[in-house]
Design goal:
Layout: H1 2-27, E1 31-37, E2 40-46, H2 52-63, E3 70-76, E4 90-93, H3 110-113, E5 121-124, E6 136-139, E7 160-167, H4 169-176, E8 180-181, E9 184-196
Antiparallel strand pairs: 1-2, 1-9, 2-7, 3-4, 3-9, 4-6, 5-6, 5-7, 8-9
Length: about 200
């Protein structure tokens, strides 16, 4: 009887572990993309379960090759942000032609997704709430003023973060240091191709 009980307990514990592992794997589902630029490759992982609408929007542009031939065209660094009251450090890219842009998406705030603007976070650029289309940015260092309640945008909604850089922050920083005029790069850095590494 003791052995049967022990076997039952072991099976129950093993089943419990399998459930936990299944939950863990489900929670960790990500999409990995490679952003190939004229200055090197940047690898990002995206979080479709946390920011489903934002990731789906980004991936539509990726899957239709609409980012090919676009660029990283704007940088915010300590020099060109010196006169701003609320300073940030990012590189912005994805300037898809207007005729190829999809309709704007509803903003998934950091309050909803809990994906904060940390070093390497990738997020959607926007003007008004619910106006993001194709343009995205990558954070250099932590940027809490871009989160929900942050002061960079006067409406306080922040921006829709949806993933992070896993490799290639050296490329991101190199792009940030390129020469600019009023934050726009004199020689934009070409985005050759963005590919989903887990099709």
């Amino acid at each position: 009887m003791f052995n049967l009980n022990m076997t039952y307990m072991k099976l129950k514990y093993f089943s419990f572990l399998l459930v936990l592992i299944g939950i863990s794997v489900t929670a960790q589902k990500t999409i990995t993309c490679k952003i190939s630029t004229s200055m090197g490759d940047i690898f990002v992982e995206l979080y479709p379960e946390k920011a489903p609408a934002t990731v789906a929007n980004y991936m539509k542009y990726v899957e239709q090759n609409l980012y090919d031939g676009s660029s990283f065209f704007r940088v915010c660094n300590p020099d060109n942000e010196a006169d701003r009251q609320v300073k940030i450090e990012v590189i912005q890219g994805g300037d898809v032609s207007e005729e190829d842009q999809f309709l704007p998406i509803e903003i998934e705030t950091t309050k909803q997704t809990e994906i904060l603007h940390k070093n390497g976070t990738i997020s959607m650029a926007r003007s008004e709430p619910n106006s993001a289309t194709c343009s995205f940015f990558i954070c250099i260092n932590d940027q809490p003023e871009l989160d929900f309640g942050g002061k960079r945008n006067p409406d306080g909604m922040g921006f829709a973060a949806f993933g992070k850089v896993t490799k290639g922050m050296d490329v991101v920083k190199a792009i940030q240091m390129q020469k600019d005029k009023d934050q726009f790069l004199i020689n934009p850095v070409m985005i050759n191709h963005i590919v989903n590494l887990q099709p």
